[in-house]
């Protein structure tokens, strides 16, 4: 087998990225994603691309925040691993297969090959997630009318609510933050994400019961790819009443009323209560996401 050549791309040779087959239909999943040519890398053997990866970040980010497109040719898992190992950015890796990938033998094989390459590069599985996409054809979810939604200008109020929400959470990223830096870190990570989103700060909302008790928060947002459910969270003492659905319904209406033609969302596969709320609100699963942590930060 001939030697492997790893190349970073630029605007002049970015076309090389498109020469590898796309069995996970990543191109369709990234129709609204803008990848920078200089954040793309390929592995070549005899001049043929056998692995590729695209790193991604927001328009104002100076460094990528994730690898969200990663492919290997059949039998080239080690080439893919070397591509990841030698990259200048060691950040989370995402695989985004179609939602039916477990039932389709060819797509499952392709997904598992990329999984094997990531593991060979030292990446560790963090979580598997459902990716949702609501459109007007799904119908607006009914608003139960049980909660009073209000904006709040003070970040400290949201910080305190996030600490309480994450004191009992099923979210894998929040649990990782808690393990590494406690509840303060988990709450601050959420706030940093909310501020990173280009949507207005005024959209953040608190939700109160009829008795005036804070029950939860919801963050309607736009990420760089469009409108999304930024966050849904119910305080522990108010769980068991179905309020997460109320928050999701309000978030969906909020974005639709501001012209959203679709709303993206995600939740961990293991978060069965939230997955049930997305199903109830009419959000179909369009893809799944497999998140890996790089060796440089994995425990």
TrEMBL record:
Keyword Transferase: yes
GO molecular function: acyltransferase activity, transferring groups other than amino-acyl groups
CDD domains, A to Z: NAT_SF
Keyword Transferase: yes
N-acetyltransferase domain boundaries: 163-299
Keyword vocabulary terms for this entry: Transferase
InterPro entries the UniProt entry points to: Acyl_CoA_acyltransferase (IPR016181), GNAT_dom (IPR000182)
Pfam families: Acetyltransf_1 (PF00583)
Full protein name: GNAT family N-acetyltransferase
Organism for this UniProt entry: Streptomyces coelicoflavus
